[in-house]
Design goal:
globular, two-stranded antiparallel ribbon, 14% strand, 9 strands, alpha+beta, 5-stranded mixed sheet, Aspartate Aminotransferase, domain 1, 8 helices
């Protein structure tokens, strides 16, 4: 297989590229070009960017390579950076300075939350790849960087509140510290009950086909002190199961 055939794109908004790593035998380099306040993109390639990608819709300017030698440097400049607004680039450069530290905190807090929920009888299930019982836990170990000796599983997880849809809604309404928002990847801990918000226009069968269960709560775990996050989850679960 040629280097061009092995080239892939790694666009990982959930785990972010600070937690991921180049895939052995597939990608040699990874460019981070993202910040939660201003997204430009993330690219990974092996040896050089193929001309078929340069001609793709990724490039917004009218640009056609002259030959195969017109490769990585020009493509990177035109496809990733030159098309971004100046404020997005400023935010990106500012954010990259602390991205590694922030992702360690995201991953550390999310694992603590997942362990807390997995041991709680008020919770029916937890979906987080950082837990050993997750079907993709081994894959996580191969693809993600280590945080405290364990593979970083990002800051995003989902769980089922015992009591179904109504209990899930009560959990959201009871939260005091966490923010009720559909965003992910923020410095703040964000929660949402998809069945009653983002996916409420779908019927039950359609929601389940999309992976949305009636009791599901999604959490994007932030950078706050873990004691504050767990306190709010604990008291919200009490009220959800009342």
């Amino acid at each position: 297989m040629t280097p061009e055939q092995k080239t892939i794109l790694q666009a990982d908004i959930i785990a972010k590229q600070a937690s991921g790593q180049p895939l052995d035998g597939i990608t040699d380099e990874v460019m981070i070009a993202a910040h939660y306040n201003g997204l430009t993109g993330t690219m990974a390639w092996r040896t050089e960017v193929p001309t078929r990608l340069v001609r793709s819709k990724i490039v917004l300017s009218s640009y056609t390579p002259n030959d195969a030698a017109d490769n990585t440097a020009t493509f990177t400049n035109r496809a990733l950076l030159a098309q971004a607004k100046q404020i997005n680039l400023q935010l990106m450069m500012q954010g990259i300075e602390t991205l590694g530290l922030r992702m360690e905190r995201h991953c550390r807090n999310a694992l603590a939350v997942a362990r807390f929920l997995a041991a709680d009888p008020r919770v029916d299930w937890v979906n987080f790849p950082g837990l050993p019982g997750h079907p993709q836990h081994a894959l996580l170990g191969r693809q993600m960087r280590q945080v405290d000796g364990l593979p970083g599983g990002s800051g995003l997880l989902a769980f089922g509140v015992r009591g179904g849809l109504a209990a899930g809604v009560r959990f959201i309404e009871a939260a005091q510290f966490m923010s009720h928002l559909a965003n992910i990847g923020d410095t703040r801990t964000l929660i949402i009950h998809p069945a009653s918000t983002t996916h409420r226009q779908l019927d039950d069968a359609q929601q389940r086909a999309a992976g949305v269960l009636p009791d599901m709560v999604r959490i994007s775990v932030g950078l706050e002190h873990i004691d504050d996050i767990l306190w709010d989850i604990d008291q919200a679960l009490d009220r959800a199961n009342a």
